Amino acid sequence: MRPFRNLKASSLIQDELGKIFTRDMDFEGAMVTIMDVVVDEKLLHATVKLGILPYEKGPGVYLYLTRHAADLHHKLLKKMNIKPMPFLKFTIEEPETAKEVVKEAEEKSETL
């Protein structure tokens, strides 16, 4: 397998999913952020880690995305030239993890 191929694929999937979420998805009062995408080395599965605010809306958003995972997979397949296109699995990041990411981003912006 080519080195770093899964890292490149995860970056591309994160960008395209972000565009699809913004353009085509309605999360009914929840803000959904893609925290990270992890693709296995064989490019068969991609785990999409989501940050959801407010956290209480997480189960509804999770169900919505798992029901539409096949549609999202098809849209990604049409947009990107990755063979095989990894199947999507969604997980919800805990609020503490999201707070840590925000804190790190604020610290980085202060140093700039």
Tags for this entry?
three-stranded mixed beta sheet, 52% helix, single chain, 112 residues, 21% strand, GMP Synthetase, Chain A, domain 3, alpha+beta, globular
Report on this structure:
The protein is of the alpha+beta class and 112 residues long. It has a single domain (5-111), classed as K homology (KH) domain (GMP Synthetase, Chain A, domain 3). It has 4 helices and 3 strands, in the order αββααβα. The protein has helices at 5-24, 58-67, 69-79, 95-111, and strands spanning 31-39, 45-53, 87-92. Strands 1-2-3 form a 3-stranded mixed sheet. Strand 1 and strand 2 (45-53) form a beta hairpin. Helix 1 (5-24) crosses helix 3 (69-79). It is globular and about 40 Å long. The N and C termini lie far apart (38 Å). The model has no long low-confidence stretch (mean pLDDT 86).
